[in-house]
Amino acid sequence: MKIALLALLGLALGTLGGAALGIGAGLAWVEIFKTTNFEGYSGMLVFFTFMPIGAAIGGIAGALLFGVIAIKDTAIAVERQPDR
User: How many domains is the chain built from?
Assistant: First the structure.
């Protein structure tokens, strides 16, 4: 159960991080390649292309990373053991 929960945590964190990196990459693309801003085209390009791709890649990578870490570490202390 710990592995599944950590994979879901990785999915959530990876999605947020990937979306942020996707926005950054999209803004860099718009500036480097001088994309036109006619009727908000550059904004739609960033938020409808780069952000979802970054979120998908980040979510998958985060889930895999956290899942592999959880599988390899068998002694993850999720709850404290009571003192005797």
Answer: 1
Q: pTM for the complete prediction? A: 0.80
The CA distances from residue 43 to 48, 50, 56, 61, in Å, are 8, 10, 19, 26
- Residue 48's domain comprises 2-72
- The secondary structure of the chain, three-state, reads CHHHHHHHHHHHHHHHHHHHHHHHHHHHHHHHCCCCCHHHHHHHHHHHHHHHHHHHHHHHHHHHHHHHHHHHCCCCCCCCCCCC
pLDDT digits (tens, 9 = 90+) for 18-29: 999 999 999 999
